[in-house]
UniProtKB/TrEMBL annotation:
This is Carboxymuconolactone decarboxylase-like domain-containing protein. Residues 40-121 form the Carboxymuconolactone decarboxylase-like domain. PANTHER family: 4-CARBOXYMUCONOLACTONE DECARBOXYLASE FAMILY PROTEIN (AFU_ORTHOLOGUE AFUA_6G11590) (PTHR34846), CARBOXYMUCONOLACTONE DECARBOXYLASE-LIKE DOMAIN-CONTAINING PROTEIN (PTHR34846:SF5). InterPro entries: AhpD-like, CMD-like. SUPFAM superfamilies: AhpD-like.
Amino acid sequence: MSAETPRIAPLPQDEWSDLLKAVAETAGPLNVFTTLGRHPALFESWIGFGSMLLMKGTLGARDRELAILRTAHHRSCAYEWHHHRRLGLDAGLTEAEIAALRLGLDDHGWSAADRMVLAAADDLHSRGTVSDATWAELAGRFDERELIELVILIGHYHMVAFALNALRVQPEKSH
């Protein structure tokens, strides 16, 4: 089986649950949804959690997308990168900044605010925790809820990348 062949194919439209239909009407019939929709109970729990982080969280869109794109890079998740690249642009990231997310932290002139979010993503990727130095910087900028959310957001997108990569979810043909 090649990397271009999904390990689990997206659910055919005539088998979609009401929730999957509603999600597809709102966000589009994305393969991430139609693949995970094969497990209706898990999909129902996951979509609520993921939607909260993506659309109703306390973090600003720029911080959120920096964290997600850095995580997509760390996990080599082309699907996640592709979708969040567009969201990153919508959140105010430039093409140059998005390209720099694939580089070392010192290889781009990040602002202190951007740098600390990226350092948190890097720490969690490499060490499974956030260093005391990075935490101190973050705690000077974010409140308690935002700190919790940032760590959960990064962890969530690691999990999503694991699933997308392992299930070999393919990009939509129209994109």
